[in-house]
Amino acid sequence: DSTSNDASSRNPIVIAANRLPVMRTDDGWAPSPGGLVRALLPMLRESGGTWVGWTGNSDDHVEPFHVDGVDLHPVPISEEEIELYYEGFSNDALWPLYHDALRDSTYDAAQWEAYRSVNERFAVTLANIAPTDATVWIHDYQLQLVPGMLREQRPDVTIGFFLHIPFPPYELFSRLPWREEIITGLLGCDLVGFQRPKGATNFIACAQQLLGVDAHDGIIENAEYQTRVDSFPISIDFGEVEEMAAGRATRKRTSQIRARLGDPEVIMLGVDRLDYTKGIGLRLQAFAQLLEDGRLDPERHVLVQVATPTREAVEHYKDERAQIERLVGEINGRFSRIGLPVVHYLYQTLPYDELIALYRAGDVMLVTPFRDGMNLVAKEYAAAHIDGDGVLVLSEFAGAADELTDAVLVNPHDNEALQDAILQAVAMHRHERRHRMAGLRDQIRKSDVQGWADRFLTALLHAGEAP
Ligand code: G6P
After folding, report:
1. d(CA 456, CA 231)
2. Partner of 122 at 20 to 30 A CA spacing, among 151, 188, 208, 384?
3. pTM of the complete model
4. What separation in Å is there between the alpha carbon of 91 and the centre of ligand 1?
């Protein structure tokens, strides 16, 4: 539509994110899988823009390069900075604090200093490469100081920021020793976007309480400009997932998976990064209790849990992994039969096409995080179910719960409720399953990741105008 054209064709778009949208392959670089990258790369290509980010390796001094006609500009991060900025401040201070303080945060001045200095490196890089009047779109909690730093150096550029994770209420956020600095950093933006309306109101409340700013109608008044604050729930590339799910190779792989699992009546599926926010342990416990009580039967019901390795150097992640793996061992020891485990546990990063085949094989998808910005697995599962069947059990505490009201919604802290939700999904009649799945698919189809990016960029373009 016309808004998307004027959003993407006027000014060059420069994106900054902690990670570049590419992976190293045997012969160079390839785009990372997933809808976000697929949605944003074409926009960059058309607008003549650049993506600024880290390659994922320490001290990786790579010259700027192109992938698929898109300019990529690596920002080097040293081994010590990975420890202090990435594992430390980003993932051991901000991550738990922003996720309901599910684990204790470490607050450490050296980590903060590294966070500040890596953010400064991103800001200087952006200031050097952004064309005049460019649109700069900065992503996620690792880079919250960049907007303020960039505005000081480049008042001509338009600055947007999108937070992919929740923004906590003042009661939690105010624990952060550098709380004013973070808010000031984000107020360098013309537009700050959050997943849910609650994130936006939490942010405005923090800005008012900590900095005494004036706010009205989702607009914060700064000395010489305004910052607009709103919610933009992210999504997936519905068409891409559907297409992959429909492929002959996927169909073949899906029936192979079912057969390998012993052709059980019901395949339950969990797919998460191995993160303590995801509620994998409580999910396993609920499953075990249902087996124990004879309400599920290991001959008819199996669980596949994919846990993708992530942030393995951080202590809370090591603990979580140990706990999950002990539980898997206990459950299998008690309920499996020779050649037929009841829990199939993969601590692996699976290729995207294998995941899509697994989604198709899954009769019941369990997405039960304690807190999650959005959760795209829930949306991918529904998009992959081109057969119109399958049940999604979804935590109320995932951002996706706002839109995916046709899921079986559950409070994962309530173990009885979680068990009931699993049983409800397993026993659901075909008619209701199909009705709910159609609702899920309609919802995701009509607000996919392209629409999300267009809405954000259009709002950013108009951020300076009167409401
Ligand atoms: C979440 C964050 C992203 C992050 C991703 C993977 O989705 O919002 O910013 O890139 O997790 O985590 P990692 O630490 O491996 O980048």
Report:
1. 9
2. 208
3. 0.96
4. 9
